[in-house]
Amino acid sequence: MADFKVNILGCGSALPTTRHWATSQIIDLRDKLYMIDCGEGAQVQMRRMHIHFKRLTHIFISHLHGDHCFGLPGLISTLSMLGRTGDLVIHGPKEIETFLQPIINLFCKGLEFKIRFNLVDTTRHQLIMEDRSVSVYSIPLIHRIPTCGYLFVEKAKEPHIIREMTDFYQIPVSWMKDIKQGKDYVTPEGEIVPNSRLTRPADPPKRYAFCSDTICNRRIIPMIENIDLLYHEATFCENELARAKETFHSTARQAAEIARDAHVKQLIIGHFSARYNDLTTLYQEATAIFPNTILAEEGMTINVGSV
Amino acid sequence: MADFKVNILGCGSALPTTRHWATSQIIDLRDKLYMIDCGEGAQVQMRRMHIHFKRLTHIFISHLHGDHCFGLPGLISTLSMLGRTGDLVIHGPKEIETFLQPIINLFCKGLEFKIRFNLVDTTRHQLIMEDRSVSVYSIPLIHRIPTCGYLFVEKAKEPHIIREMTDFYQIPVSWMKDIKQGKDYVTPEGEIVPNSRLTRPADPPKRYAFCSDTICNRRIIPMIENIDLLYHEATFCENELARAKETFHSTARQAAEIARDAHVKQLIIGHFSARYNDLTTLYQEATAIFPNTILAEEGMTINVGSV
Fold first, then answer.
1. Is the dihedral of CA A136, A138, A144, A145 positive or negative?
2. How many CB pairs under 8 A join A and B?
3. Closest CA to B255 of B297, B213, B223
4. Averaged confidence pLDDT in chain B
5. Residues of chain B with CATH 3.60.15.10
6. Mind listing the pLDDT tens digit for each residue in A138-177?
7. Residue A95 at interface with chain B, using a CB cutoff of 8 Å
8. Would you list the DSSP string of A110-142?
């Protein structure tokens, strides 16, 4: 079973349509959920995808446009009504606290859990959060207001024990934790069995980056080099390049060029303009440059590193 | 064609479900749209029901719980993106301005239309808005925070001209406006033809009241006496009466008793608790007391006064 999944709650852009929801994703990594952006309706999409509110621990907001954060007041109210007690950490540009704190004060009197804000410098690529499963880095993006993407780097996993070898040496269970952490085994007779004979290396840690909203920005390439999965906005087709530049968005072709040049393993494009009833052109444009591209879609779950 | 319609955008309560949206309605009256409450997702429901954003002129908010107003930031942003220039008036308890103004300042810089707040005293039953189509009155409700319902009273219509009579008297077109306004006709010979011989009375003005959220409150009865349609919340069944009282909500039976005792012509119940997958019990409970009851449902349009 994959233990690093990206759930697409919404992949539309600013204007409401009946085909897409505003931007929101849930990263499901080992035992926790991490939300990226929270457009209006995100909490309903969580219900639809049977994603449990209680496992949500961190929310990462890319920027303060409504289609990326107007679902937060409702989600926080719901968490409160569901009896949450554990802290919720909200990461984002500094205006996120300016936006939310007055709403929390007005609507959530006597909130029984703590909301902590981690205000992110959107101009720097740096570690902004770390727990035992993941490290999260900011990715500076260029949009009409301060904006950043987020890079999720899974923590190194433990190596696999080679059962035949531990059986052969009759290694007691009490040793297993040390062996998983790289120690050699010392037999009762004092013989040293090197760790490399007892374990196979763990699967390499997987990496996922979320880059939306942004004008095409090649400076992000070194930050996302070789990652397993890149979500990059593709608001427009190439024939709307002027409009993309004017509004600080990207085209599907540009997203694919970034993916190709950063040698990512897979690309998923989203943040589709309301003008596209049919996404075929966006898809064709991207796959012509970077074949391993998929179109985001509400309700979709992608296993990071499965390709 | 009915010219006084109520569109149900959402009729759920606070917790999100996949069956219902949070509270929101659109009154479609002659040439304008009036919104009542604006829960999260209301703007998407407007799209689904093909309701044009441009005709919206007034929004009435019952109270400052998130499931009745968290759709406002997104809706206002959308109106801005769609190039609105005409004023938008938001009526509601005074906290509505405290809630919205900072969000407008943060997200809608350079808004090209004016948002005017009409802060409503929720403790009084009084006229709060009037235009050439409708008069709107507040209805004091009893909930955990200041809350009011709204009574929409259609303006008197012009009487119907009896064509056979105006033809008979060969009345010039230039007289028609005066005759519609009640004047008698004076023939060139000086003969007076009484207005009652030339017109049939207009259809009586229709009335609709929205009452949600509220504990059962019989004091509203005189304010809604004999109206055409009453929307009354029915969050719970009667077997949850204790919970209804504790949370200042009503049961389906109580809503029906109010409708019966106020002699309204039709009742529509909504604001269903997330606990009810099946609304049959609520329906049976209400219709046992007041047969002409319908269950609200997303996407439903009711013609006021059609029964």
1. positive
2. 94
3. B213
4. 96
5. 4-157+205-303
6. 999 999 999 999 999 999 888 999 999 999 999 999 999 9
7. yes
8. T-SS-EEEEE--TTS--EEEE-SSEEEEEEEE-
ipTM of this complex prediction, to 2 decimal places? 0.92
pLDDT at A31: 83
C-alpha distances out from residue A143 to A183, A209, A210, A298, Å: 48, 17, 14, 24
Contacts of A47 in chain B (CB under 8 A): 16-18
pLDDT the model gives residue A192:
95
Question: Does A131 participate in catalysis according to the annotation?
Answer: no
Q: How far from chain centre, in Å, is Cα A34?
A: 7
Q: Does B18 lie at the interface with A, CB-CB under 8 angstroms? A: yes
Q: Which of B16, B22, B44 sits opposite A16 (nearest CB)?
A: B44
Q: pLDDT tens for residues B18-53?
A: 999 999 999 999 989 999 999 999 999 999 999 999
Statement: residue B278 has pLDDT above 90: yes
User: Closest partner residue to B47 among A17, A40, A74, by Cβ?
Assistant: A17
Cα gap A273→A279, rounded to integer Å: 10
Record the tokens describing residue A163, joined without a space: 């059962």
Q: What are the C-alpha distances in Å from A190 to residues A185, A186, A212?
A: 9, 6, 57
C-alpha atoms less than 13 angstroms from C-alpha of B107 in its C-beta half-sphere: 28
- A44–B41 CB contact, under 8 Å: yes
Could you give the percent of chain A with pLDDT greater than 70? Answer: 99
A14/B95 touch (CB, cutoff 8 Å), yes or no:
no
Here the tokens at position B186 are: 């004076």
Q: What pLDDT score does B306 carry?
A: 84
- Give CATH 3.60.15.10 domain extents, chain A: 4-157+203-295
In whole angstroms, give the CA distance from residue B72 to residue B61.
10
> Which residues of B are annotated as catalytic?
67
Interface subset of B 25-84, CB within 8 angstroms of A:
40-41, 43-44, 46-48, 64-67, 70-71, 73-74, 77-78, 81-82
Chain B residue with Cα closest to A20: B44
pLDDT grade, residue A110 (50/70/90)?
A: confident
Using the Cβ of B241 and the Cβ atoms of chain A, whether some distance falls under 8 Å is answered with no
Return phi, psi of residue A7, to 5°.
Answer: -105, 125
CATH topology of domain A4-157+203-295: Metallo-beta-lactamase; Chain A (3.60.15)
Candidates B43, B46, B107; nearest CB to A64 = B107
pLDDT of residue B2: 62
Among B18, B44, B95, beta carbon nearest to A47: B18
pLDDT digits (tens, 9 = 90+) for A70-93: 999 999 999 999 999 999 999 999
Query: Residue B79: its chain A contacts at CB < 8 A?
Result: none
Fold of B4-157+205-303: Metallo-beta-lactamase; Chain A (3.60.15)
Q: How many CB atoms lie within 10 A of CB A50?
A: 7
Look at residue A84 in the predicted model and tell me its pLDDT. 96
CA distance A300 to A38: 16
**Omega within 30 of 0 (cis) for the link into A228:** no
